[in-house]
Amino acid sequence: MAESFRTLCFFWGIESSWELLLRSCGNFTLIPPDREAIRTVNFGEFFWPVSGRACFHYEGRKEIVKPGYAWYYPPGSCHDYYPLEPFHYCWLTVDGDDAATFFKILNLQPGLNRAGNCPVHLFNHLGSDFNSDTREHRIMALSTAFRIISMCSLHKKRGGVSMNRNMEYLKNQIELNFGDPELNVETLASDMGMHRGSLSRAFHNSFGETVSNYIISCRIKHAMTLLKETQYSIGEIALECGFRNANYFAKVFMAHLNVSPSEFRKKYSLFSSGK
Hints:
275 residues, Jelly Rolls, Arc Repressor Mutant, subunit A, 4-stranded antiparallel beta sheet, 10 strands, 43% helix
């Protein structure tokens, strides 16, 4: 009999000095009859399915949650859910006095929310931040969590977006997802339900540059920030920014800025001596 699979990146917990922080995250596959315990907790928890279906209960009602949707339990909720079939999902929890506000300002409603495909790569990146319990890693993890919930919120609004705003939506999607190494014109065209050529022409007409160039520019811009403001390794930065390896990252970085990532860091890092 197949068994459930749990990859758990747990647990920083709550500190009195932090009014908002990412508490924990994970990547689970639950297989019936296995289920999580019914419990009431004080933190907010967000679930984004990858495959399969599960039944979630909240305030006397129940909903079937499947890919294309996400579920949010606000702080103080009773968590009661179980898989109807092998259910693969990613999740995260946010703790602190401002946890409920965090989800509210991103327009996430308690219970079922419309969503797109689960950004598994961002959840996996959250796991890497849990490897080190430092202020820097906590802030970066919270930033990634913000990106994840923002993606869900954007998909909720997608149905009401008129055609003349599709390219702005696409631009936002690139800015949220450039860290995914699979992001390219083909995947974006598929998500938008457009032909690759039509999408490319519309984006160029709207913003004066190609989709591919904009993806690269977002990756390079974020890499510059990480090189200046963190002590992440070059390899870690490459993966964070959507490059498949450090060598390719260095090649693209040099082509755009005429300087290597290491040289850029040596010149501009906030951690360099004398700064």
